[in-house]
Amino acid sequence: MEGDQPDTSPGVNRAANRVMSGLGGGVPVSVVSAMIDPMTNLGVVFLPQLPPERLRGVARAADEAGLDELWLWEDCFYQSGLASAAAALAWTDRLRVGVGLLPVPLRNVALTAMEVATLHRMFPGRVLAGVGHGVQDWMAQVGARVESPMTLLREYLDALRALLRGERVTVTGRYVRLDDVALDWPPATVPAVLAGATGPRTLRLSGERADGTILTGGTPVDRVREARRLVDEGRSAGNRTDDHPMVVYLHAATGPDAADRIEAERRSWGYEATTDVTVAGDAATVAAAAQRWADAGADTVVFQPTPDDPDPEGFVRFIAREVRPLVR
Fold this sequence. Notes:
Elements: H1 16-23, H2 29-35, E1 41-46, H3 55-65, E2 69-72, H4 81-91, E3 96-103, H5 109-122, E4 127-132, H6 136-141, H7 149-164, E5 169-172, E6 177-181, E7 193-197, H8 200-209, E8 212-215, H9 221-237, E9 246-253, H10 258-269, E10 278-280, H11 283-295, E11 300-304, H12 312-323
Parallel strand pairs: 1-2, 1-11, 2-3, 3-4, 4-7, 7-8, 8-9, 9-10, 9-11
Antiparallel strand pairs: 5-6
Helix pairs in contact: 3-4, 3-12, 5-7, 7-8, 8-9, 11-12
């Protein structure tokens, strides 16, 4: 998961009935499909600290338990986000799989469009893809860091969304350059492109140019409300009237040692003890925390287990079977 580095900072909306009645005809189908159930979407992160071969068991457990979404990260230098997503989708029947985020300095926009389009054609309505600045230290490490990450993300979002709409694109930007490029196999229906954001500039950019926002890093409840305000400023600037889902991550743990593990996680991420970005406890406790984030404006709450969770498959079953019924 990438931080919003250029801003120097360390949903799916419940209007499904309005969209389905025709007022939101321009909303990408992947957003619409996720809005059919008015409840908050719940997901779980398959952490990249786990070896890739563990993904199959976790994905199948999530699918069988009825989890809404499984999310993957493309953190350097762990695992490919899209390769993992393709495998998880192939191993499951109904599970939605999100990638949040793909670092845009690392990926040519035409290649990303080809890969996202391929997944959408093979697994329609089950793919969620987010793009972001990338962690700047990692981007420098691989020789991909750019002088203006904001410019790159703006150009990238415009080009990626146009390609996924099936358009033929020629553009000569500061970073994105395409000469008469069009996908031979565009998605049958237009998918959403989400953007990862933390700082004010990127949140406004996401509202203006993306189809949804993934709040990166630890996001307290009050920060969700502020993020929604900034996204709405961008939407107004871009004359956007479609719905704009917001995804948040919430550190979570359950079981006998949950409190100790979540405290260690808090320290490892450098959160202040008073920062409200974690939850540990039983289903009622975890659900109550998720509801607070949902009430603040999150359309999807993605639970982030601790890297040392003793039972990743059990964690996704816990969220799907015990927490899901308690969250509106």
